[in-house]
Amino acid sequence: MPANLTKREIVLEIYEKTGFSQKEIVNTVQMTLDIVMRALSEGRNVELRNFGVLEVQKRKSRIGRNPNKPLNKVVIPERAVVKFKSGKILKQMLKKLDISQL
Question: Is 90 helix (H, G, I), strand (E, B) or coil?
Fold first, then answer.
């Protein structure tokens, strides 16, 4: 299974391609992530053309079970979750992915 992509790897790749200082890149990447998080926390969807959409959805309250005590029912409260829908170009790229490597 391939390793996860980290924020540090993103910064290094941008640094190698642009020559901007790593400090500037770290600040820019973090500001971008902060803006995305703030928008989602305000209930706004984030649309990144060709990449995808981060969509805030409401999950209904439901009854769950405690895995350690399966006879006990637990109320899972209503909450907001983020769902990702891939964009057109990302979908095309994923079709080419060798899923036997996952």
Answer: helix
